[in-house]
Design goal:
The protein is mostly beta strands and 315 residues long. It has a single domain, classed as Porin. The chain contains one helix and 17 strands.
Length: 315
């Protein structure tokens, strides 16, 4: 048992190292929303996550970023997923609303995952997502130092941007490790003069976590999420959470060279749980904003008995 635990830990550490060192890093701006409690809505970026809970699971997340700073990002998501065919197949739905400054984006995606059993309680899930984003920009509402700047002379009306994504997730009841690319198409929007005003870019995600059983009533779960995208910052999120009596999660988070914060989650019962996180940036003066606040709620339809494959819900 100890050797199996050690072997898994070494493998997990090795794969994480490869993921973090093999992907190139470039910098500019972020296009897709960033979340602190990413495990609550992992389906938005990882289609292989669909059906992992073993029951119908619905979650909602609301994120107010950099509160007090005008035009700061505000994101809301809704996800729902469930298993079919005795856990081998998972189906999901993810809806994302994201607003920052004059830009408004909405997306709706359907997710499909096929789960292969590698050994008892250990699976490899292959996922695909397909859907559409809408993009809208009200540039004429901006107060510019140069009102005649042609780059902001006209709005961008609602445009439909179809896309597909893929993902792979290796998981059991106490660990997970995966990679995904939620958007494979580089959709573009051009104005009346055929000038490109917007282009979707590729995003790559690497993710992982492990649950350590410290005692009968205390567990420790370290997780990471790595993001790489073209011409944008590469971010690595590290989090460490303690679970007390399978009821209360309490943890700290750190986004490399970006922010740090605290997270809290309360399991009301086997079906309902709430979460909250507070982030403070490392690159803004405290007077610029009062931090980022994120609220989550998850409900699982157990129907009087737990038909999950796992005894507890760790991710």
């Amino acid at each position: 048992m100890k050797m199996n635990f050690l072997h898994r830990s070494v493998v997990l550490a090795g794969v994480i190292t490869i993921l973090l060192t093999a992907i190139p890093r470039r910098v500019k701006s972020q296009q897709d929303p960033i979340y602190t409690q990413y495990l609550t809505n992992l389906l938005t970026i990882q289609p292989a996550y669909a059906g992992i809970s073993g029951v119908l699971s619905v979650s909602a997340l609301s994120r107010a970023q950099w509160v007090g700073w005008e035009g700061a990002p505000n994101s809301n998501t809704f996800t729902a997923h469930l298993p079919v065919r005795s856990f081998n197949v998972g189906l999901g739905l993810s809806i994302v609303n994201d607003k920052w400054g004059p830009i408004l984006q909405n997306g709706i995606y359907a997710d499909y995952a096929y789960r292969l059993q590698l050994r008892p309680r250990t699976y490899l899930a292959l996922g695909i997502k397909a859907g559409v984003n809408t993009y809208h920009a009200r540039f004429t509402d901006l107060q510019l130092s140069d009102p005649l700047d042609p780059s902001f002379a006209q709005n961008v009306d609602f445009r439909l941007l179809p896309n597909v994504g893929v993902g792979v997730l290796w998981h059991s009841d106490i660990f997970f490790l995966g990679v995904s690319m939620p958007k494979l198409f580089k959709n573009s929007i051009v104005d009346d003069s055929d000038k490109k005003v917007y282009r979707e870019i590729l995003h790559f995600y690497g993710m992982g976590g492990y649950v350590f059983f410290l005692s009968d009533y205390l567990k420790f779960k370290p997780t990471f999420l790595y993001r790489w995208s073209e011409q944008t910052p590469s971010y690595v999120d590290f989090a460490g959470n303690l679970l007390f009596y399978d009821k209360v999660w309490f943890g700290v988070t750190y986004r490399l060279q970006n922010s740090y914060g605290l997270s809290f989650q309360f399991n009301v019962n086997s079906q309902l749980r709430f979460g909250y996180s507070l982030d403070l940036t490392t690159f803004h003066d405290r007077m610029v904003n009062s931090g980022t606040h994120e609220f989550t709620i998850t409900y699982e339809f157990v129907n009087g008995h737990r038909n999950r494959r796992y005894a507890a819900r760790y991710f």
